[in-house]
Amino acid sequence: MIICIKEKKEKKPIVILAIIITLFVLLTISLLFQNNGNHKNNLLKEIAMGINKVLMIPSSSKGKETNQNESYLIQKNVNTALQEEIKELKEMLELNKTLTEYVPINATILSRNKSYWFNTITIDKGTSSGIEENMAVVTKNGFVGKITKAYRNSSEVKLITSDDINFKVGVTVRTNGMDHYAIMNGYDLEKNEMIITGIDKTTAINKGDVVLTSGLGEMFPAGIYIGEVEQIESDKYNLSKILYVKTKQNFNDMHYVTVLKVKS
After folding, report:
1. DSSP characters for 133-189?
2. How confident is the model at residue 78, as a pLDDT?
3. Cα(124)–Cα(110) distance, rounded to whole angstroms?
4. 3-class DSSP state for residue 245?
5. What CATH number is attached to the domain comprising 159?
6. 83 lies in a domain?
7. Number of domains the chain is built from
8. What residues contact 174, with CB distance under 8 A and at least 6 apart?
């Protein structure tokens, strides 16, 4: 196969040269039978243009094909991104229908600090929209954070993936029809999982058990989905269990969130 390709490449210059020679022969014959000087010049120009077109066909075709391919890929990426955002908006609207006890305030993420990507986000809604500090922030995939600072037209959200050791959330682990209270106590970046502590070693916990917000000691509503138990370990003293919980939310790819305001 390599030999055939090489032979084809070697034949291209020979073919082009043959075409050029043929065109010059035709030019010479035409000049022998024509006496008009202007006609000779016009003929020379036409043949020169013909030769130029022959020489430019491979490169122009390649350039056109490359531009079309690049344009197609760019358009495809743009369409994919738009479709994802439309899907996310639709899912957010569906979420609003289920939050009957709260006033959902939908917001767009304005920015994220690249150095602290998993810590905070800034959204485009603030006190003028009814947002206050400590309100819960959710997506269709569950609980993602809380409002820490509220300005007139924007707010800062601390994500549950934050490395802030003081950001703890009361949770319940639902297993075998029973709720066991615990604390969401950090995020493991390597495992991409939430860390849950405070479960007694004698408590039976299973992989796949659902973890929800407890509503205890917090301004957050109870029963907001967080994730499911992925791994169970004992602490270093073998006195309690450490749970690693997998969320459904991709924290690298968020565009919209919903802030939950309690109905007055």
Report:
1. TT-EEEETTEEEEEEEEE-SS-EEEEETT---TT--EEEEEEETTEEEEEEEEEEET
2. 46
3. 6
4. strand
5. 2.40.10.340
6. no
7. 2
8. 180, 209, 210, 211, 212
Helix (H) or strand (E) holding 244, with range, is: strand 240-246
Residues paired with residue 104 on neighbouring β-strands, in sequence order = 260
Question: Which run of H or of E encompasses 193?
Answer: strand 193-200
β-partners of residue 109 are 123
43 close to 27: Cβ distance less than 8 angstroms: yes
pLDDT digit string, tens, across residues 118-173? 999 999 999 999 999 999 999 989 999 999 999 999 999 999 999 998 999 999 99
pTM over 0.85: no
Q: In the predicted model, is pLDDT for residue 89 greater than 90?
A: no
| Residue 104: its H or E element | strand 102-112
Q: What is the DSSP letter of 206?
A: -
* Cα–Cα distance, 41 to 32 (Å, whole number): 14
Contact between residue 251 and residue 119 where contact means Cβ atoms under 8 Å apart: no
Mark whether 61 and 128 lie in a shared domain: no
Residues 224 and 213: beta-carbon distance below 8 Å: yes
Q: Which of 150, 108, 156, 149 is nearest to 127 (CA)?
A: 150
- Using alpha carbons only, how large is the chain's radius of gyration in Å? 34
Confidence of residue 85 (pLDDT cuts 50, 70, 90): low
pLDDT digits over 1-38, tens only?
A: 444 444 444 555 565 556 666 655 555 555 444 444 44
